Amino acid sequence: MAVLMHILVYISAVNHVLGASLSVSGSSRYAELNRPFTLTCTVSQAANLIDKVLFITRASTDAFASLRQNMASCSVFNVARPGYTVSCGSGTDSSSSSTKTYSLTINRAAEHDAKDWWCDLSTAKTRSNTFSLQFSRGPDSVTLSPPPPGSVAEGDSLTVTCAASCNPPCSYSWTLGNQRISATSQLTLTNINRSQTGNVYMCTATNSLIPKSKTKQFTLTVYYGPDSVQLNTTSPLTVKEGDDVAVPCGATNCSPSCSFMWKFKSQIKSSSDVLSLNNIQRSSAGSPRLDHRVSFQKEFATAVGGDVTLKISVIANPTPTFTWYNLTDGNKNRLGSRSPATTGVSAVGKLTLTNVQHGDIGTYQVVVSNGAKDTDLVKNVTLDVSGSPNIPSALSVWSSDPHSVSVAWLEGFNGGSEQTFLVQYRVDTISRWTNVTEVILEKGVNTIQKAVISNLQPKTRYLVRVLAYNIYGYKGFTKEQETLTLPPGESFLPTSSNKLTGEGIALGIVIGIATAVWIETFFVILWRRGFVCASSKSDGKQSEGNVHQHGQLDDTRRGNRTELDNSGDQANTYEGLGIREDTPYAKMELYENLKT
Prior knowledge:
CATH topology of the largest domain: Immunoglobulin-like
Shape: elongated
CATH superfamily of the largest domain: Immunoglobulins
CATH architecture of the largest domain: Sandwich
Strand content: 35-45%
CATH class of the largest domain: Mainly Beta
Radius of gyration: 41 Å
């Protein structure tokens, strides 16, 4: 009878073993070098279990460690090597417990422990899942992609990505000084301005599990300028035939230092800042060209029934004639020649239209000729019904101190009625716009306007936009531009610069540009030569949206030529002046002036 009961109990235990299931897990997702790590084998449906629990690793053909479970008794059966501890866990002291746990502890985790682990029941041949032991590591170093930039042109954008080898993956942050500016691995800077040169941007990669951090930083260098170019000499300049003359050329605000180039009719005459002319002789007369001292107006407007005068200012010697044509509806109808109003070598051609009707609206062409052997000057202008002004262009904003922002833009066509400008700004975290109370009146198409926004908070990002309007309304705001005011106590200009405010900087730029525009024509005795000095940064880079460039560029240089006859501007000796399209430049013209 006792033998029969023993057989029944054994059969019951075997049935429970056959239904058991196993799973293995780690004390954490990742192990740390030289720190304890525990693998736990959990056996479910383990009531009345009689079997050996084996810990196995893929690198070993035998059990790495084992325990024996005999009903309510659990004991260590075998440990393969020192440095490891096995133990009986919960439920192992009760035969009726359906869940039992067994542990293998790695006392000091090492690289050779990074392998696959599982547990088995020896008799039941039941196997658990596989646990891949991995170590938390990194970051050991941080890399930036692309590599830290040496320089960026003013107005450009820059994106830098920070990366590090980490397990588990690292978190990232970018800081500027003590201010966190990005919580991701990517740093994006837009519309970069010269006040940001010298900024140190730091990326921090952090493994929060260890914890461990590494950093990588780069210093931003902004290339900008030149803002203007000047001829450093008196005007007018008079010399005798056969004399020598040296004309120096200067540039403002170049970073890095500007290089210089003098050209005469697309031929390079000098690669230094000084043009030396030796044994000056009289030369043949040249063809008419736009007077760079006067802004060329391409658009005119008037109300139906009103009067309007189309005009163009040129420099020519001898005095030219102006022939006007109406190009409306694909026809070229001659309107006649006009005698210009002249002052020295300057001439102004005018065409006055009275009682303008809808049929007069369209494109007009003027051909300026003085009989020189070069081609005539041909320009197109448009006439339209008065309306709202064009949206201002080339908006630029920058901060020169902690409490102000300077704003500059190019004035567009006023739509035929005097326009006024409205400047608005807001903090980037606030949706409400604030108006600058200053009334800003028009100066003329393609001239530079400026404003200063005061009483701002330091180290704050602001958005700025500009609106042009007249009695007919407006077309819309400019695209918003952003800038960051400087930290307290910092200034864009050094203390030796008389502590100029943002308004002083903007005003200085405007005055510098105006000076370059109004460089006088130099006279040498009756016949003319046209010389141009162009200045550029040594690396040839330039911001495309730089509003501080020369405001009087002709159509060909601005890339918006509208002439029907493409040969009409060939007489313009100011073409091809610079290394890039928006290179500021100054012009010098030589004339011969014989006494009568």
